[in-house]
Here is the input.
Amino acid sequence: MEKTGLILDSNTISGIARLAGDAEAAGFDSVWATELYRTSFGQLAAAALHTSTVKLGTAVALAFTRTPLLMALTAFDIDEISGGRLVLGLGSGAKRTNELWHGISHGKPVKRISEYIELLRLMFEGVHRGEAVTYKGEYYDIDLKGYHRAFEPARTDIPIFLAGVGKNMTKAAGAVADGYIGHVVCALKYLKEVVCPSIKSGLEVSGRDRGDFTLSSIITCAPSKDRKRAEDAARRTIAFYATVKTYAPPFKLHGFEREAALIREAFFKEDLDSMIKNVSDEMVRAFAVVGDVEECRRRVQEYRRYVDLPILSAPHYYLDFDEVGEYQKAILEIFGR
Here is the structure.
């Protein structure tokens, strides 16, 4: 079967582990853990113990909220637990959440994440050898002289994927990472007109071929015979992401600026009904794969023209987990082997 990833989503850790096992049994290439209500690494630790072959990705781990050394050690741990199956997906996080939720400076995220990834690679290669890992950049001034991780890692070449929406962060993925993770709102038009050209520019900077790089994107997918119910479910996830200004470029490209502004206004008034009502049918068609078996297969195939790895996610925000589970089960049945 063609490579397909799945976002893990459950209201319990045991549910995460079971879903990962189901995805492996269905032949999925990879499972991916988000980071909002739980840490992505905690979820993947549970998934690792209930699987043996499926790749385990973070989609995404917040980089700036962890020091590079802590991130490197956590990646080593999960990679060891899983027998070398981790894909370390990193994201800068949004300015508002970094500064208000975590109390850290956001800075110039492209420059900062580029330094961060460069540091991670030095640590992956050297901390177990007792090498004096030193680094001085605009954001990180590190001196690990005297630090020696006392045991070998499962791998020193853990793949690093970088998530991005804007052109500059997307270009950075092509320049410094092994792969790219497109956001839920990176629709077909955005992938074609913004993401792919930006990745190409980044790869040219790093002197690499496209074949040496994995372009993936998360896609909201709601397979169902009840189209209206599935569309309403997708509407809720789209409404959630419309509230974040970091994700504005795809909404602007599609001409959905007015709707996004109304959704944000309703969000700050805690008016969920108005948020959902302002997600138009055109927005659902642009940002989600919804419909019966054949339509969902056809739409995901369209994404494969631009991405190497579609990562399918059931709608989940503002939904009952029983309904989320229905869409996950359908995804496994339709896109499994």
